[in-house]
């Protein structure tokens, strides 16, 4: 009897053991869905284009693409955090290049996709991945349009007045004086009422005062090896004031927003318009021939260097399901095919083929942008600066222009902003050097 009981007990134990082994060796069910989230779409036809992309992808692969758009572009980080806390499935997220640094540095919310994207790097125009590369690693990729700073001018008016396109600051001043005398209108208009745009002027003056090493100087500043209150930074701020002192920019710009700037230029109340967005006038045909100018040379020996980059991008959250990455990469490969990329990116009326093969707007000025400006363009500094530094820069410039603050005082104010977040928020520009194995494990596929 005891032997029989022992036999049944052992049999039950062995059954349970092998059943447990079998269960533990079962493969996790393969997901048949890729989920992409991001801000609400902002361009006409974009929602429909993404839906078409989803249908085509599912028809080819059998994998469903679920799309979740909500909120504004700057709300993406908090929406990601909410999704992570709720345990929601998210495989891809649309995120601007300007948010990449802050998201990765402060929360480790994005995945390092350097190796995953290696087979697809050749699908992007040269330099387009730079704004998504931090610490030598790739944290996202562009999927939209790109921009570069320049000046629109009324070519018809310039030809009428016999003004050659100015290349130096002195030539720009002479052209502005002729415009005021002959036409009695604003020479150059700028959207000064939109405070954050003041930084754009500094980018371009600073490029020249640093001998065209603005990125290197900025990295040294943020890393703590140079002060913002240095001759090059002070000279960059002072150069902006020269535009107002010489009458090229007027007080009209201080009360003008983006719509007002466009209206003044289109209605020929201003002869030139400083902008970073080629799309501003694509849907509004002016009653005159358009031309574009590079920012004038203000420092002998330097060259005019635009700032810009592809702002709209896509990334993989660090909390994405690792087991579903093969499906995610199938969709990334699919969406980067020129015929598929065109479906979405065409909604932006692109002027730069960020993804190779995407059709750009056919226009002589667009050709100048791609042939002359884009090859010299470097990443916007406010995509590198922490938000507190950027805020300090665009706050001090109007004060410097009005004489309420000297350029040296303004530069010290910016330095103080960086010192403050280092002391109070433990800010570190080269954050990747402080990460340990555990930190990297969280963001490594």
From TrEMBL:
Pfam families: SBP_bac_8. One of its GO terms (cellular component) is periplasmic space. Gene3D superfamilies: Periplasmic binding protein-like II. It is found in: Periplasm. Keywords: Signal. It comes from the Bacteria. Its main location: periplasm. SUPFAM superfamilies: Periplasmic binding protein-like II. Belongs to the bacterial solute-binding protein 1 family. This is Extracellular solute-binding protein. It comes from Breznakiella homolactica.
């Amino acid at each position: 009897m005891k032997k029989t009981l022992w036999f049944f007990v052992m049999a039950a134990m062995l059954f349970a053991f092998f059943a447990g082994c079998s269960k533990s060796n079962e493969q996790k069910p393969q997901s048949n869905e890729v989920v992409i989230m991001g801000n609400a779409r902002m361009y006409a036809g974009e929602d429909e284009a993404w839906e078409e992309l989803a249908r085509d992808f599912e028809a080819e692969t059998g994998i469903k693409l679920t799309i979740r758009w909500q909120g504004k572009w700057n709300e993406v980080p908090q929406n990601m955090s909410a999704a992570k806390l709720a345990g929601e499935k998210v495989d891809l997220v649309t995120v601007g290049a300007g948010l990449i640094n802050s998201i990765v540095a402060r929360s480790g919310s994005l995945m390092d996709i350097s190796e995953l994207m290696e087979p697809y790097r050749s699908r992007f125009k040269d330099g387009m991945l730079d704004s998504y590369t931090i610490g030598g690693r790739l944290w996202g990729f562009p999927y939209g349009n790109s921009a570069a700073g320049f000046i629109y001018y009324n070519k018809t008016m310039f030809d009428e007045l016999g003004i050659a396109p100015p290349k130096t600051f002195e030539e720009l001043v002479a052209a502005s004086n002729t415009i005021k005398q002959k036409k009695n209108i604003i020479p150059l208009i700028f959207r000064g009422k939109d405070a954050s745009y003041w930084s754009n002027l500094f980018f371009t003056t600073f490029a020249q005062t640093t001998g065209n090493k603005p990125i290197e100087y900025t990295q040294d500043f943020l890393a703590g090896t140079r002060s913002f209150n240095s001759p090059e930074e002070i000279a960059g701020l002072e150069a902006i004031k020269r535009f107002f002192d010489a009458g090229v920019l007027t007080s009209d710009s201080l009360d003008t927003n983006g719509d007002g700037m466009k209206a003044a230029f289109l209605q020929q109340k201003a002869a030139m318009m400083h902008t970073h967005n080629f799309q501003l006038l694509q849907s509004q045909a002016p009653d005159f021939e358009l031309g574009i100018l590079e920012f004038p040379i203000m420092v002998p020996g330097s060259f005019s260097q635009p700032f810009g980059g592809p702002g709209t991008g896509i990334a993989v959250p660090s909390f994405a399901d690792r087991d579903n990455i093969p499906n995610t990469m199938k969709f990334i490969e699919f969406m980067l095919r020129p015929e598929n990329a065109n479906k979405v990116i065409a909604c932006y009326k692109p002027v730069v083929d960020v993804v190779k093969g995407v059709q750009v707007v056919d226009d002589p000025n667009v050709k100048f942008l791609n042939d002359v400006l884009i090859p010299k363009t470097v990443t916007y500094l406010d995509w590198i600066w922490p938000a507190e530094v950027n805020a300090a820069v665009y706050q001090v410039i109007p004060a410097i222009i009005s004489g309420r603050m000297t350029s040296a005082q303004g530069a010290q104010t910016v330095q103080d902003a960086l010192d403050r977040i280092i002391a109070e928020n433990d800010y570190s520009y080269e954050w990747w050097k402080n990460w340990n194995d555990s930190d990297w494990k969280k963001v490594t596929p």
